[in-house]
From TrEMBL:
It holds the Pfam family HGD-D. Belongs to the FldB/FldC dehydratase alpha/beta subunit family. It comes from Nonomuraea bangladeshensis. It comes from the Bacteria. This is 2-hydroxyacyl-CoA dehydratase family protein. The lineage of its organism: Bacteria, Bacillati, Actinomycetota, Actinomycetes, Streptosporangiales.
Length: 365
């Protein structure tokens, strides 16, 4: 395995631990902000000089506390994140930021805010909601610009420093560009990265500058990557904040060459580094067509384009228990494609019942 890929895998294995702090005088530390949801403008966290940690669940550790406060009807990924927060699994977080990217994230925000008020002994930090909406209206754009501006002001109040927005946006755009180049490695025929490997490459727990350096090294070492044959799959539907489902699918001989959830590869198109908060608000307003933010027709059209780009041979739509929205898109997605498609519906968190996949679309490799 090339050294860059090994280091990215190591950083991905540290999910739940914040990226290392830069060297500071003895006794000082850089504040850590835990964040949840696809609509948190991470560029602002970088611009504020904070360490950002996207919080993830753990399908193997149970979610009893999260079930107690959120109820079992909420997406189990959110229930697991709440359980881990209450157990102190993420270490010392100075602040929490939640986005309104889906109903489960919003429910998590309300639960955290109320728990902090009525049970201060939990030790939960201040929680902040970034309420970005996605309706195609001018009034929505104005609303989002105000919310993004308020969040920027809150970060300046937390840190006591002026945001370096242009520098942060430029860095995140460079990371987007490099991740898009890395995504082309698994779109190659045969693929040079598995889906599981790309999940690690995209979600390594690193400061953006360190991530950029390792992505550049990975691309330089691309000639050392193994080739991966197998039936090529585009994975649609629920988020995957852990590698469990990817590992289950690819253990059957498939290769996941693309996906449309928020832990996959980001769009290479980022906000203008000179456009300030206006450009940042516009970027998150028109974010990718995930199951919770786009119409059925938009999702179907996106799937058709992505499948062609990835040279996929099969679409697998994965819908988790408590996250039914992806299943609603499946009939239109299937109708828009010229390749087979299968729906894995009401799946347990971090698990994949592949009986329908094996029966209807067995892998030849």
């Amino acid at each position: 395995m090339p050294m860059a890929l090994a280091l990215l895998e190591e950083a991905y294995a540290r999910r739940g631990a914040p990226p290392a702090s830069p060297k500071l005088p003895a006794g000082d530390r850089t504040p850590v902000v835990g964040h949840v949801g696809a609509d948190v403008p991470v560029e602002l966290l970088t611009a504020a000089g904070l360490r950002a940690l996207r919080l993830t669940g753990d399908p193997d550790s149970g979610s009893a506390l999260g079930d107690r406060y959120l109820g079992r009807g909420v997406d189990p990924m959110a229930r697991s994140v709440l359980t881990r927060l209450l157990a102190g699994s993420f270490g010392d977080l100075d602040h929490l930021v939640i986005s309104h990217d889906c109903e489960a994230s919003l429910r998590l925000f309300y639960a955290l805010r109320e728990l902090r008020r009525v049970e201060p002994g939990t030790g939960l930090p201040e929680v902040y909601l970034v309420d970005v909406l996605h309706l195609p209206h001018r009034t929505t754009a104005r609303y989002n610009r105000r919310r993004i501006g308020e969040f920027a002001a809150r970060l300046e109040a937390w840190t006591g420093r002026t945001l370096d927005l242009a520098g942060a946006v430029a860095a995140h755009n460079e990371r987007r560009r490099l991740l898009a180049a890395a995504a082309e490695l698994r779109r190659a025929v045969p693929a040079r990265l598995t889906g599981r490997q790309f999940l690690a490459v995209a979600n390594a727990v690193l400061h953006v500058d360190e991530h950029i350096a390792l992505l550049e090294r990975l691309l330089a070492e691309a000639g050392q990557l193994e080739e991966h044959a197998g039936r090529r799959v585009f994975l649609s539907g629920s988020d995957h904040d852990t590698p469990h489902v990817y590992e289950a699918v690819e253990s059957e001989g498939y290769v996941i060459v693309g996906e449309d959830h928020s832990f996959g590869g980001p769009s290479p198109e980022g906000p203008s580094s000179s456009g300030g908060l206006d450009a940042l608000a516009e970027h998150y307003h028109y974010g990718g067509p995930t199951a919770h933010r786009a119409t059925v027709s938009e999702r179907a059209a996106h799937a058709a384009r992505a499948v062609r780009h990835c040279r996929a041979e099969l679409l697998v739509a994965y819908s988790r228990v408590g996250d039914e929205a992806p299943a609603w898109d499946f009939p239109a997605q299937r109708a828009a494609l010229d390749i087979p498609a299968v729906l894995l519906e009401r799946q347990e968190y971090g698990r994949a019942d592949l009986s329908a996949l094996r029966k209807e679309h067995p892998c030849a490799v």
